Structures are given as structure tokens and as C-alpha cells.
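Example 393.
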Amino acid sequence: MEKERFKEQITRKIDSIKDELVEFSHLIHRNPETSFEERKAAAWLAEKLEANGFQVERRLGGLETAFRAVLPQRIQKRPAVALLAEYDALPEIGHACGHNIIATASLGAAIGLTEVISQLPGTIQVIGTPAEESGCGKKILVEKGMFRELDAAMMVHPSNRTLVARGSLASQLVEVKFYGKAAHAAAYPEKGINALDGIIETFNNINGLRQHLRSDVRIHGIITNGGARTNIVPDFAAASFQVRAADDKYLSELLQKVKNCARAAALASGARLEFELSDSYYQAMKPNHTLAELFVANLRQLGEELDESPQTGAMGSTDMGNVSSVVPAIHPYIAICPEKAVGHSPQFAQAAISPRADRALLISAKALASTIVDLLSDPGLISKVQREFKSQH
Ligand SMILES: [Zn+2]
Ligand SMILES: [Zn+2]
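Predicted structure in complex with zinc ion:
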């Protein structure tokens, strides 16, 4: 079949540049850049894509480190499928989420597809999406309309398991601030209002609330300001919380309860409360199962088996959820390490440049490209993907 011939051609192309791809993944890993600061990674990706015939629009949607790469001779063609590249790292622990693999897998898939795209209807794009870890970069791009005129979007995320249709939690970042009154903490405590008490009681109230929440909920926070000196009653204290749940509706109910925890703390401490929802709102990921099934079949054909053991429920959040609300999308995970190594740890950062990770990124590139070949070769599949998307929204 023609489709199979295209997939073989793509596989050969990706294999022929595998050293270059692995080196690229390691280069990004050696140069970790945090959210919105990914200047080197975005520039290097853009250059590689240009060298392979893509035309790159930099500063996509006004974001310095976002870009879109298109094939100039195929700009208006449909269906149009986007390969997403993330490349931000974490502070202090570097590429402990393995986004070097995400970027390189999408790059490899795009280069592989240039071999056969002229024989297929439709087109591909690579969208460089900064600030996944904090800042919710894709939400900004979605709001600026950068995912319009697309029929599907996909990427692969490294993990300790290979899971294709796993969802993600909706997540809202909350800033809690208390304003009190400074006073000498020993000589005149009765003249002070302790803002830190507001924060501590907010934590205690939330901990009390936990027993009565659904098991998919995660609420976790840090104190970002706890006062200046032990001998001054803190007149200002602040904390950031991330509040997460499996669906957007329950999350909005939950945010009211969390706000009540902070209000009660304000009443008890006498400190004035400011409760702010940040712009960072990660929507729950709704994987498109039609796309996921195609991806699974291609993974299997490439010799990568799915992890069928029971799911632990371990889920984070991703701004790919925001993308999945406007275009059919998948965000599959591919194993690069044993299950005991978890994301956002130094062990995972090491694993992201291991021989297993290098192999996983090549398989991911091939599976992404092969899935796009399936999709572009069969108009019936595009309508099936669309029907499923409409029934989800
Ligand atoms: Zn992460
Ligand atoms: Zn990640």
C-alpha cells in the first residue's frame, strides 16, 4: 500500500539523520532555559526547520520564544496538522521534564514528512510553544487564535510509562496575599496584625477540607513571603497554590471552597485578604481517541509496546489541554526510564539523555509522522476525528 511505502520512506529519512537528532536533543538538554526564556532552543529549532525547507514565523502571537514553521509551497492546503514543540526546562533541575525530547521528536517527524508531503493532500506545521511548565504558553497562543485553521495537533511527552490516551488535570494557579500591621513582636504584639497567621490558617483550613474532596483533587502550595524578621509582626505574607481537578466544572467549585478557607483565615487573623486567580489556567486534556488509536497502531508497528498495567491515577497538568479544547489533539507519553523515576526529579533529567530516551525520541518522531500519513491519506479519518471532537465539546 502507498501509505506503507510513505511510512518506510519517513523511517529511512529519520534513521539517516538519527545522530543529528540525538545530538540536537542533548544540545537542548545541556542548555536548559525556563519558561519564556527559551531563546536558544527556539532559535535552534527555527534554524533546523529552515534548513529543511520550512519557512519560520518567529515571535508567534507576540511571544518572543514562540514560532510557527510552515512549508511555503503548501500554505493554504488542508487538512493541516500541527506538530507541537515544547522546550522549556525547570529552575535548578534543568530538563527534568524531558522537553528536549518533545522538541526533537516533533522536529524529526517534520523533517521525515518533508520526504513524502508533496504526494499527500494537506500540509503540516511545527508550532514552537514556550512556557509549558509555568506561564501556560499554549493558552496565550490559543487565545490569540494561533490554532485556528488546523485539523489536528500532536506531540509526544517522555514519561516513566508508555500511555497514549491519558488525560490531564485542569489546574488553576492562585495567589493568596494577607496585609496586616507591623509591630515589635515582643514589646507590642497586641498592636500588630499578623499577616503570616492568615497564610498559616489558610493552609490549615485547606488541609481540613481535603477529607471531603474528590480523590482526583490536588491542592499544593508554597509560602512565597513569610515576613522579614522574627522580631517584627509580619505586615505582609503571601502564598501560591495550585488547585487541580479532573474536570473544569469541579475545579471552579473547588476554587470557591479554597477561597472560603482564605476568607476564614482573614476573619480569624484580622489581616486583609487578597485572593487572585492568575492567568495560568491549564484546561483538562481531552485526548482524541481516533487520533490516539492511529498513534498506538504506529507505535506497535515500530516495536514500542503500550504499558497495560493498571493506571495509578498519577496525572499532572499540561497546556496541551487548552489546545485540545479548540482542535482535536493527542499528548501521548513514551517511557524513557523505569517507573520508579518520576518527572521533575534529577533522575528523570538524567534519563532524558539516556540511550533509552534517544531511542524513544526516534520512535516518537516516526510514530508522529506515520500517524500524520494515515490521517492525510484518508479523508474519512479526518471526518471521524472531527465528529469525535464535536461530541466532546
Ligand atoms: Zn513538567
Ligand atoms: Zn512536561
